[in-house]
Structure formats: C-alpha cells, structure tokens
Amino acid sequence: MAGGGATVCVTGAGGFIASWVVKLLLSRGYTVHGTVRHLSDEKTGHLKRLENAAGNLRIFKADLLDYDAMAAAVVGCQGVFHVATPVPSEDLTDPELQMLGPAVTGTTNVLKAASSANVQRVVVVSSMVAVEISPKDWPEGKVRDERCWSDREFCRSIESWYPVAKIISEEAALAYGQQTGLDVVTINPGLVFGPMLQPTVNTTIQFLIYFLKGGPDPVKNKLWHIVDVRDVADAMLLLYEVPEATGRHICAPHVISARDLLDLLKSMYPDYPCIANESILDRDHPAPMTSDKLKKIGWSCRPLEETIVDTVECCLRAGFLDHVGGETSCRFPPLLNQI
Ligand SMILES: NC(=O)c1ccc[n+]([C@@H]2O[C@H](COP(=O)([O-])OP(=O)(O)OC[C@H]3O[C@@H](n4cnc5c(N)ncnc54)[C@H](OP(=O)(O)O)[C@@H]3O)[C@@H](O)[C@H]2O)c1
C-alpha cells in the first residue's frame, strides 16, 4: 500500500492529530480527501496552506452521522484514516448525542462507506482509554499489551463516556473487519502532545497549559503514557503502508506519573507558576502499556523532552501561555480526570 499517487481520506481533517496526518500524507505524494464539519477558515485554513495542498487536497464537508456526505468523501480512495471523534473539553450534557452517537455510529458509517468504495485498508484511531481502564482478567502487575481491553461496563457505571465510546467503536471496527473482510487496523495512542497546526487549542494540549499556568482543579496522580503528535502521524502512515500490520497497536511510549511530569515541567520552565504539588491527588499506579508491537514494524519516536519543548514553543508563539496569574481562569479538562 506504499507510495504516493494514491488517494486517501482523512476524517476530522482539521483536528490536532488529523492535521499532522494530512500534512504527512501530502508530503509523501498522496492525494487527500479531508472531511470537516465546517468549511470555515478556522477549520480549513491551516490545511489549505500545507505544502502540496493546492494540487492534492480536497476538502469535504461531512458530519460523521451523515452517511451520504461521508461516502462522497471516501469515493475514489484506496485508504481511509478515521480520526474524527469528539474529544470534549467540557462536561457532557447529553452523552448519547455528543459522544456515543458520533463515535460509534460515525465509525460504522465510515467503515460502510469504505466497504462500498472498495477501500484497501482503514486505519481507525482508538485510544489508550480502550486498553488501560480496569481491564478484566488482566493480572495487576502485568505489562499491558494489545490483548488488554478496558472494562466497558465499569466505565459506563462511572459515566466515563469518552472511554465507553472509544471501547465500543474500536470493538465495532475490528468486528466489522472480521465480518466483512474489510482490512481494518486500529491504533491506541496515549496522551498526545506536540506542536499544533490548527489555530485553536485542543483538549489534550489544555492539559500541558494547565500544568504550566496552574488553576483551581485537582488532578489525579495518574500514570500517563505520552506520545508526540508527529510520531502518531508516522505510526498511522506505517499502519497503512505495511501490509503485515494487523489488529490493534498501542502507541504510548513515554510513561510518567502526573507528579513526575510536574517536576519535569518545573525544572524545564522555572518561570511558570505550575499547578501546586498538593493539587495532585494520589492513586495507585497499575502496570504500564507497551508499544513494542508498533516498534516491531519499524516505528520509532522522539524523546519526551523534545515533545514538551516543541509544544510549549508552539503555545508561546500562539499566545496560549499568556495571562499567567491573570484574570483568565485556566481549567483542567474534566475528561482527563475521568481516565
Ligand atoms: N489527543 C489525544 O491525546 C488522543 C489520544 C488518543 C486518541 N485520540 C483520538 O484521536 C482522534 C483525534 O483527536 P484530537 O486529539 O486530534 O482531537 P481534536 O483536535 O478535537 O479532533 C477531533 C476531530 O473530530 C471531529 N469531530 C468531532 N465530532 C464530529 C462529528 N460529529 N462529525 C465529524 N467530525 C467530528 C472534530 O471536528 P470539529 O473540529 O468540527 O469539532 C475534529 O476534527 C480522536 O479519535 C481521539 O479520540 C486522541
């Protein structure tokens, strides 16, 4: 499946991860059909300015719940990168409407569209949250790999809707592949940091901004798995191009607790107030996840410090780290305290 000249579709193209996927694909000579919900300059301007975009990027307006619009974007494509899923920065008021519908029905729509267009392979972006949350039948201290699934019913019982949506949609995507013969592979990224191409701050970058600026919300001393957005894009292209890639792929190389991450940020950026040590609430650390399966097909990643430096520089340039200690209240996205 290697090689430029092919046409591929990227869903949610204007988002944080998808924008880097579009950039990488265009740089490798692919023609890209990018779907966005809104054709505004905020969602598409940064894509149109990418190298090779003028000739090789077509933008389609498509909501995940609109099968016909999605199918129109996938026609003529050999591959699909299904990236779009809501990643809300605020609490949900209607989980079915705001999360489960777009994530689950949306994924099914994309897969059906891919089948009708005779697509060769679909790379579906799942998440670490489908791997690491209270997995059933997984020994406590055992390193988590692709056989490990988060406990969907536990997540539902605590109304943690983002993980519920990611678990169900990844299960459904893999099952759809098995039932229909469509070649579906999934990727499970950890917490994604890195420079942003889009002009607005996405939910996971708010994590880093909050740690540096400080604010009123307590955070859990979770064992985080961090990965650079550029390395996620590389992994996704590899998963598309390497024929033997199959099933799930954890993409979560840097393991660090919230407390250790805070110490690292304080040592790198002593001029920022950072969150208070006391606002980090203790919790048990389960065994980490391994990204070995991805590494075995040739994936490598940059060091965590480089990712942090590049993220902070990007935020500084865009003014997202202004108003430290000022009137603008900085909040920790609730979703990130639920996982
Ligand atoms: N960031 C992370 O740490 C991380 C980690 C693991 C997995 N992921 C997964 O990676 C993917 C991208 O996340 P991201 O961090 O790049 O977040 P993001 O920037 O918020 O991107 C999400 C994208 O999904 C689109 N979208 C949401 N609802 C939609 C709908 N109903 N119809 C069509 N498009 C819709 C958004 O479009 P609008 O801009 O119009 O809202 C946006 O383009 C998601 O599947 C997420 O679950 C992210």
Number of helices: 12
Q: Main sheet?
A: 7 strands, parallel
Uncertain runs are none
The CATH topology assignment of the domain at 7-193 and 225-254 and 287-301 is Rossmann fold
Quaternary organisation: single chain
Hetero groups: NADP nicotinamide-adenine-dinucleotide phosphate
CATH class value of the domain at 7-193 and 225-254 and 287-301: Alpha Beta
Broad shape: globular
Provide the gyration radius in Å. 19 Å
Please identify which CATH superfamily of the domain at 7-193 and 225-254 and 287-301 we are dealing with.
NAD(P)-binding Rossmann-like Domain
Q: Strand share of the residues?
A: 5-15%
In total, how many beta strands? 12
How are helices and strands ordered from N to C?
EHEHHEHEHEHHEEHEEHEEHEHH
Q: Return the CATH architecture of the domain at 7-193 and 225-254 and 287-301.
A: 3-Layer(aba) Sandwich
How do the strands of the widest beta sheet line up side by side?
3-2-1-4-5-6-10
- Provide the residue-averaged pLDDT: 95
N-C termini distance? 35 Å
The helix content is 25-40%
- Which class do the helix and strand fractions yield? alpha/beta
